[in-house]
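At your convenience, could you comment on the folded chain following this short note?
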Amino acid sequence: MDDDAFERLDKQKASRREKRTAVRAVREEAASGGARGGTDARLSFLYEEGVNANDAGAVTKCNDVLRRCASMEEVLGLVKEMRDAGLEPVESTYVAVMLVCQNVGSPERAVQVYDAMTEAQVRMTGRTFHLAIELALKAEMFKDALRIKDDMRYVGLPVSSKLYVTLLRALADNDMGKRKGPQERLIRTCRLFEEMLNEDVDPAPAAYHTLIVAAHRANQHDLAVRTFDELIEEGITPARQTYETALDSMARSGLLAQALEVFVQMKSNGLMPRKVTYNTLLSACVNAPQPRVEAAFEIFEEMQTKGNVTPDRSTYSLLIDAACKAGKPEMAFDAFSHMRDSGIEIQVGTLNRLIHAAGLNAKEDSTSVQATLELYDAMKKLGVEPDVITYGSLIATCAKARDAATAIKVYEEMRAAGVEPNRILFNVLINALGRANRSEEAMEYFRVMQKQSEVNSSLTPNRETYTTVFDAFIGGGGAELAMAKQSLESGDDASFVHSAQVAKLREIYAQGVEHGVYEDLSVVLSTREAESESCTINMNQLSRTEATVATLVLLERMSTLSSDQVPSAMFIYAGKVKPGKNGAQRRLLAIETVLRAANVKFEIGEVGSAELIAVKGKHCRAWIEKNAGTFV
């Protein structure tokens, strides 16, 4: 062997010694916490002889180390070390980092890792997309989960039915962005469900169930029922929760016949009805367009015999409600007898229902007031404290019977008992006094209500309050009878329009304007159409009584106009005629009655299906000339 050979051999040995020394130094540095450039001892193999930056085995080893990291700081340092050593992260590296995000409780960081992959143009498999979506949902980053799903579709990877179900549940159960609430959640759920159908992905039973639940929560019961019907048409056997949710939507919509069909189908599929199932059917009896009290008692009977289910307080309350809505108080008392025999504790809500039932026929039966008072006394003997609903039901019965004296007595007892009135109670009290032709006393309690509303805003009079006060002043016979009576007394048809009684109505209307309940007709009168110089008064949202008072107010406001302020024509819009509804005709008749009593010339017309009254400018001027300054 020549000298050159020995020389080459010595050089090779020296080079190997240098590499071993360097690797040893790196390991010692890493072990002491001062690794070069952040080098971790677990990645020291990167500095060993023969490691290739393009070696898949080296990347795999790095990924194994990454998965064992206990913090994000640690994992990011190791990734940096990989890059410093010339190894570029691949899909499996990013997945390893995402798994660390999951393990250390930072799923939101996984979305950042996904975005880094996208920016680095790393090709991803379906498993990576699924993991990114799963972690985005865990972090409640729902928009990002949908975005990643869209990226998945964009690269041509199919979105499975299972993944759609996962996303549908997330949208149905959670808010996104500024638009919140069950209605917005339903809209987003529907959009994703439609996308699934458009992608020719067969919806799983859980997808239908999720949409049904979302619609039910948003009170879109028609949609819930239609979706359930589609599920059945697809030949899918619903789960118990799906059945019960759909049944509840049918019950709330009053679809008793359909609910009973589904009930039978549910039993035929081996799902025995529970107490909630029977109570849902009873609710359907209550909400049916024609309340089905007989069917309710049949369901009640089956519940105990065939179903072997013990009724609860809700069961009896629904039976009583069905009887009340059907106008059969005797059946409400039958339900109460069953409840009492069952040993269920009698609470104020049940007795309130019975008081309501006893007062149903107060118009025809003069003993109804006495019957409700007897129940009220029995309530107190049982030690059940009456609440504001109790007193409201008693006063409502007095209103039907036109018994103002008893209504006031009940109100005073309520105050003595320390029960605070609410807006509904004041409304029924004012109604009771009005129906008994005691308008001045009705006005007194209206003022009490207004005074108390200064410290309790929930007592602020609403439209129902104002309408009730208007009715109290106009009288039970309506505006026509009040006008006829005034005309007989004065001999002048127009006297009602100028009476002190109507002046009081105008004052109350002005208070309604002040509280934002009604429009200021002075402003409306001064508003002109650009071309015709006419004005339009819209009364299509008012009741007949409100339209009567608004027209009386309109006349008074007209009387203050000067000649140059009179519109070319005045159009009073009464609303559209709708089949089966006579609201527009009733408003039109009320407006006509007042204008005729005031001797205002007018014409009746139609625009499409809308009813309106037109008063020409010259007739407005003629009426103003005669009546200016004549109102009280």
Q: What stands out?
A: Strands lie at 535-538, 569-576, 603-607, 610-616. The longest helix spans residues 3-31. The CA atoms of residues 453 and 459 lie 5 Å apart.
